[in-house]
Each structure stands twice: as C-alpha cells, then as structure tokens.
Amino acid sequence: xxxxxxxxxxxxxxxxxxxxxxxxxxxxxxxxxxxxxxxxxxxxxxxxxxxxxxxxxxxxxxxxxxxxxxxxxxxxxxxxxxxxxxxxxxxxxxxxxxxxxxxxxxxxxxxxxxxxxxxxxxxxxxxxxxxxxxxxxxxxxxxxxxxxxxxxxxxxxxxxxxxxxxxxxxxxxxxxxxxxxxxxxxxxxxxxxxxxxxxxxxxxxxxxxxxxxxxxxxxxxxxxxxxxxxxxxxxxxxxxxxxxxxxxxxxxxxxxxxxxxxxxxxxxxxxxxxxxxxxxxxxxxxxxxxxxxxxxxxxxxxxxxxxxxxxxxxxxxxxxxxxxxxxxxxxxxxxxxxxxxxxxxxxxxxxxxxxxxxxxxxxxxxxxxxxxxxxxxxxxxxxxxxxxxxxxxxxxxxxxxxxxxxxxxxxxxxxxxxxxxxxxxxxxxxxxxxxxxxxxxxxxxxxxxxxxxxxxxxxxxxxxxxxxxxxxxxxxxxxxxxxxxxxxxxxxxxxxxxxxxxxxxxxxxxxxxxxxxxxxxxxxxxxxxxxxxxxxxxxx
Length: 540
Ligand code: S1T
Ligand code: MG
Prior knowledge:
This protein is of the alpha/beta class and 540 residues long. It is 39% helix and 15% strand. Strands 9-8-7-10-11-12-13 form a seven-stranded mixed sheet, with helices on both faces. A six-stranded parallel sheet has the order 2-1-3-4-6-5, sandwiched between helices. Strands 15-14-16-17-19-18 form a six-stranded parallel sheet. The termini are far apart. The site of magnesium ion (MG) has 8 residues, from α17.
C-alpha cells in the first residue's frame, strides 16, 4: 500500500464518504491515486471556495468527516475562507493539500505557488485548523494521520494534511485509528450531579441545543434527554434544524429580539439555562432583549462544562449526554409544548412575491413531497429559512460567509443522495452560483430559490444611503440553460407556485427559480432583527 492509499483507507474508516477537490501540479500524484484506487468517490468542482463549502456541508449533514482536496498555494490559499468558516462553525473538515517534494524544497529556488516561504501555507492553516501534519516521513505518516483524524472528530474542527508530491506513492503502512479519549468517571459523575442539582433548583429550566449536538451525532439522544428531563427545548440560531422531526418538546429557535416573543421570554427569563453544544457568539446571543447572565448558565461546549465560576475539563459532550441519560429515568412531567406554527397555504394570486411567501410555498412543498435537506446562504434567505418548518439545514449562521449556499447544496446531494433545496441571494449567487454547472456531470438536480432583490439588501437595511448596495439586475434565469439546468423568473405568487410544482416534477436537471423581490421588502424575521438591533443600539 502507498501513502495516499493508506490515507484514503483511514479517511473512509473514520467516516468520510466522498472527496471534493480541484487538482494542480503539486496535487496530480495524489489525485491520480484517489481516482484510480476508487476508495472514495472524487467530485471536482470549479473554484476552491466551493470545494470547501461542499465538503463542509457533506461532513455536517452526516455528522462525519468532509474532505476537501486541493493543490499547494493557489488552491489551498484560495480555500481559506471556507475552512475558516468550518472552524468557526465546528465542522469536521479534512483539508488535503499537495505540497513541494523533498528535492525541490532544497533546490534553493523560489517555487511557483509559494507565498513568503515554503512553510507559509502550513502556518496559515495552523490558524484555521485544530491539528496539522506534513506527511514527509512515510514511516511516521500512519501515526500522524491517526492523530490528526482523531483530532478532527474529537474537536469537530478542520484539520490539515500536506502531501509532498514526491511521496504520494511512497510505500506506507496502514493507519491504526487512535482510541477514544479517557474520561475521568468521578469527574463526570460530579459534573452530572451538579447539573441535575442546578436544574432541580431552577423554577424555569430550559435546554438550548446547539451545533455540537449535530456535529457529534447526538440528536436522538438529546431528544430523549429533553423528554426525560421534562424540559422545554429551543435551538440556537446556528442550531436551527436540530431535532427536526424528533419527538422532543421543541419550542422553536432562540433569536432574541428577532425571534418569537414567547421563545425569547422563555430563554431570557430562565433561571436554569442549559446550553448544550451552543457556541456563545454574537449571532446566537448579541440580539438578546435582556442580557443573559452567562455565569448563571450551564455551558457544555468544546469538551468541557462550565457552571458559575468553575469548569469541568475533559468532559466530551457524548459522554455527558450518556451519563445524564443513565442517571435519569423516564420523565413523569408532561410538557404542553407550543410548537412554532410555520406559515402554510400560499395564496397563488397575482400579488408580488415577498420572502414570507417563499417560506409559505416551501412549507407547502415539504408538506406535500416530504422533507428535503436545505442549504442556505447568508442574506435574507437565511432569515426566511427561520420560517421554514423543521428540516435539516446547513447554513453559515455564525461565521456568516456568502457563497456557501450553492456548493453546500451540491455537497448535501452528494453526501445524502437526496434532492436538496438551496436558498441563495443574488449577491451570493454571483460568487459561487456557477458551481451549478457541475450538476450535469454528477446527476445532481437541486431546486434553487434565488432571492433576487438586485441588491446587497442586508447591508442596505443598515446603510440605505450607500448606492454601492445596488447590484442591478442580472439575467440569472437565462443563465441556467447554458449551465445544464432549467431557469425561470417569477414575480407573483401564482408564478412561484407554478414554478415550484414544475421544478419538483422535473428530475435530473437543476431547477433555478429566480424570484424577483422589490428592494426593501424583507422577511418578517429580518424585519424584527433590524428593528431589534436599531432599538438595542439606540438604548446603548
Ligand atoms: N463577502 C462575503 C464572502 N461574505 C459576506 N458575509 C460579506 C462579504 C458581507 C455581507 C453580508 S450580507 C451581504 C454582504 C455583502 C449582502 C448579501 O447580499 P445577497 O446575497 O444578495 O443577499 P440579501 O440581498 O438578502 O442581503 C454579511 C452581513 O456580512
Ligand atoms: Mg440581494
């Protein structure tokens, strides 16, 4: 076996199911082995940011490894934004990069694709990954790979592996996976005792589920935990889509001033807020109507549990959930949970479409044809997604980079085999929408809802005086045919209904529905968000 084959078998053994990539001369040797070995399917895309987003989404939806394979310099450095997003959003992404061979590294010449030094890329990737290795010693490579892949799964964060191009086919032993980290049983019991005591003393305990619940594949166990604890559960903004369809007392998504008032009151009025795998960031908490005193919460994140002024280290989330379940019998407390009502029943008339109509139409579609995985970009399309009923949702809710939606949708279809729905604004589509041109080669056929308000609307709502937010009208619908799909532009609710019905009935080609939205017409969630932010800023 050679080094690349050993790596590919290890990736598969650790849960990877496919590779997304773009080669280059530093990567051709290992790409050849990927293609010829057939250990994992390879999907090449058109621009490295799309490679990173697709691999990120593929890892997220399966709670497993996503794999992005690129060349040195121009490829890997082109993908840093997507990897930074995966790092911030705790996505288990493995970055493979070709690299200079041993001989050429010592030639004394500056090499093409290098930045300041030959190590610059490695140093840049140290900032956006939790572990790294250059596989420049085939003897040591199996242990390096085992350590790095274990780190990726343990921390649910990206890792970086560099493959010198003259070693891709070097003989190499198989990788022996590292075992799970040891957990101190007494510390775990003490932590669980304290959590249960705090929740028992609280008059209004609430559990908030965050992205780590999905990343570590704990949704079913957490749903059971909420039933046994008899607690109302909400998701964080980033955790939207979690517990979708699970039998759990799910109240909705917490979004502070931008969310449903009853959910905001429940969370901000709680004296026992249990944050399970929730990233404590601004998009999850900066829009709090009432400042949440985080010192009074229970925070289980990043493999530790913090309560009050002390922290229990080395408490993996999975071990914590398992021990809580072992400790709590079935709940005797029945919860009258008010599930969020999602808009249904689009009136298919000649009225112009607004974002809320899109949410309504999608809810009708999902009710009729069954669930679809959803990828959303940043912009009002993401706020609109908050009014779409429970469905697996991949979106950069915290890092908030544009360009994620379309490639992430392709990653969802490659990873699940299910037809995805993609929500994307015109500005974001201009960045990575072209990746749709790759659907034909792989038989992907997403349904794309393009919110075309001819502007960077999310910026305009905060700075309306700036003309640079006007993007003008691009003929997105007309572009679809040339990319191998079908495109249509809709302006009324009746046209939207017809277009969606036709898109659902058409398989084998992507379906692009360009929805013309009047500038300034926002989703109700974004409207609340803008009003809330302005009110909070006015109060400062
Ligand atoms: N570049 C990238 C890669 N990501 C970003 N998030 C931004 C710039 C800044 C930015 C936003 S929202 C936004 C920009 C440019 C406008 C989005 O326009 P569009 O996709 O058309 O959606 P909509 O019109 O619904 O806003 C965030 C706040 O930083
Ligand atoms: Mg726009």
